[in-house]
Design a protein that fits this description.
The chain has 9 helices and 20 strands. By secondary structure, the chain is an alpha+beta fold. It has 3 domains: 52 residues, Alpha-Beta Complex (Molybdopterin biosynthesis moea protein, domain 2), CATH 3.90.105; 106 residues, Alpha-Beta Complex (Aldehyde Oxidoreductase, domain 3), CATH 3.90.1170; 141 residues, MoaB/Mog-like domain (Molybdenum Cofactor Biosythetic Enzyme, Chain A, 3-Layer(aba) Sandwich), CATH 3.40.980. A hairpin with a 2-residue loop joins β19 and β20. α6 packs across α7. The radius of gyration is 28 Å and the shape is elongated.
Length: 332
């Protein structure tokens, strides 16, 4: 691409680099200059303007954004739609609720090809609502070389998709103690499930003891089971994890490097996932349970590596009502 200040005689067919107002008419940057534009500029006293002119091997910004967006969506079940290109930009939109799964390494390499070729996305496994903005493709200048675009497309092909929830029903088991929280947080948990298109079919309250918890777990037939204990789970052998094992299930994980949300546990029963919610799940504020719930609901495995990866960016906003805030009160 040639970018330079030229006389009006040299500007026809070039791209205006900076918006300009002349004789009451505003000509926006990016406009391909025609003879009538130049006549108005000349009548207004303008003699020279800054323009961009495409080289023989350049691809126009809108065409380039269009091609790159198509490459990103080249996947049999990507779950995304796209906008028409405008000023070198195409947005990728979630077609339904779900989480965004990306080939991060390839997207990083794609963004290294040429500074003028960019694709900004939401974080990996970000939960989305229908219509949410997942990514934006932007050709930063007015064109890019064809060979650079082809290299970027090869790296980007099928690199972004939306995983939809595969679970439809859930049960919530609440353990109860005298003076405990009771049903507090039920609306927040229901809202989380609703956002993923999951129906909360059953809510059952039982005493905070291993045997009644285990008996209740054995009765559930939903796709997913959530446990919210009156007293926070503080060890993998505590009441709720022990009840899950007594019911014939297993506990695969206790604790996670996300705060708030440290005291979550994850397991399974009858080949169905069971999530032991931390106390912060009673609040609608974002916490570690949201990350685990959305991944499990969408069929993404949560193993040791994925929990460790959550640590980077896992320091979430403080909840003012937490009983043990991160920063102790001053003794003064």
């Amino acid at each position: 691409m040639i970018f330079a200040e030229v006389t009006l005689e040299e500007a026809e067919g070039a791209i205006l680099a900076h918006s300009i107002t002349c004789s009451g008419e505003r000509i926006k940057k990016g406009t391909v200059l025609r003879s009538e534009h130049l006549s108005n500029l000349r009548a207004g006293g303008t003699e020279r303007i800054t323009v961009a002119r495409l080289s023989a091997d350049d691809i126009d910004e809108n065409a380039a954004a269009d091609i790159l967006a198509d490459a990103l969506l080249d996947h049999e079940w990507q779950g995304l739609s796209r906008t028409a290109p405008f000023t070198g930009r195409v947005n990728l939109i979630a077609e339904s609720a779900g989480i965004v799964e990306q080939d991060v390494a390839r997207l990083v390499e794609m963004n290294k090809v040429d500074p003028m070729i960019s694709c900004a996305t939401v974080p990996q496994y970000q939960q989305m609502a229908k219509g949410g903005l997942v990514a934006t493709v932007k050709i930063i200048s007015y064109s890019v070389p064809k060979d650079h675009l082809e290299k970027a497309c090869a790296l980007a092909r099928g690199a972004i998709r939306l995983r939809r929830p595969i679970m439809k029903t859930a049960a919530l088991l609440i353990s109860d103690t005298e003076g405990g929280a009771g049903d507090k947080g039920l609306s927040a948990i229901s809202a989380r499930l609703e956002a993923l298109g999951i129906s909360l079919n059953t809510v059952e309250r039982v005493p905070h003891d291993v045997k009644p918890l285990a008996q209740a777990l054995e009765r559930f037939e939903t796709d997913l089971v959530l446990i919210l204990t009156s007293s926070a789970t503080s060890d993998i052998h505590d009441t709720a994890p022990a009840a899950l094992r007594l019911a014939g299930g297993q506990v695969s994980r206790f604790g996670m490097p996300v705060d708030p949300g440290n005291l979550l546990f994850l397991g399974s029963l009858k080949d169905k996932p069971v999530i032991g919610l931390p106390g912060c799940a009673r609040s609608p504020a974002l916490n570690g349970a949201d990350w685990v719930l959305s991944r499990v609901a969408c069929g993404v495995a949560c193993d040791g590596d994925s929990f460790a990866e959550m640590s980077v960016g896992g320091l979430l906003k403080e909840i003012p009502t937490r009983p043990q805030p991160r920063r102790p009160k001053s003794k003064r």
